[in-house]
Design goal:
Elements lengths: L10 H14 L3 H4 L1 H11 L5 H8 L13 E10 L4 E10 L17 E5 L2 E6 L1 H4 L11 E6 L7 E2 L3 E8 L13 E7 L2
Antiparallel strand pairs: 1-2, 2-5, 2-6, 3-4, 3-7, 7-8
């Protein structure tokens, strides 16, 4: 061990040793890198001057990348004909960045609806938003839902409608606004 530290050439190892030393060796926490440099100047024969310069540079932390955010913002029962209603479902991109183009290619449902806990259909995002209005931040799409006999609501009754916008695998700012549950009454 007569030449300890003589062959330390790996810069990452040297930095790690400095950081661990600042935590473990008494007195280093008050003097920071100056004490570390003095310690290694005495005990290590080879310290790279470029490494010293790199240690003194300020560290910049990159800005956190923003994400899109599709939110289910509206469910409404709209009177139609012969005592029936259909639903209007509204989705908005409340994020600060555009929705990725790839989102329109995923095979999973983009929007799904249940009425009184019974499935009332689902659509891929490219069907729900063929004009790709949701790609832009602030973009909003409202779609009529339920123009088939098994999905129409009966006048005079109340329903619990749950609508979900499905965005996996795209990360979002807020996943908690993807589902909206409303009590609606067909008048």
């Amino acid at each position: 061990m007569k030449d300890r530290g003589l062959l330390i050439k790996n810069r990452r190892l040297l930095l790690t040793i400095c950081l661990i030393g600042s935590l473990l060796i008494p007195g280093w926490s008050n003097g920071g890198t100056a004490k570390a440099e003095r310690y290694f100047a005495k005990n290590v024969k080879h310290i790279d001057s470029k490494m010293d310069q790199r240690l003194k540079r300020p560290i910049t932390i990159p800005e956190i990348k923003r994400k899109p955010d599709l939110a289910m913002v509206g469910i409404q029962a709209v009177r139609w004909q012969q005592g029936f209603c259909y639903l209007k479902i509204t989705v908005k991109n409340t994020g600060k960045v555009p929705l990725p183009q790839d989102m329109y290619r995923y095979p999973d449902p983009g929007v799904s609806v249940t009425v009184n806990d019974h499935p009332a259909g689902s659509m891929k995002l490219k069907q729900f938003d063929p004009g790709k209005k949701l790609r832009k931040p602030g973009g909003t799409v409202t779609k009529n839902w339920g123009f088939t006999p098994d999905r129409l609501l009966t006048a005079g009754q109340s329903y619990t409608v749950k609508a979900n916008v499905f965005t996996y695998p795209i990360a979002e700012e807020n996943f908690h606004n993807n589902i909206l549950v409303r009590q609606v009454r067909c008048k």
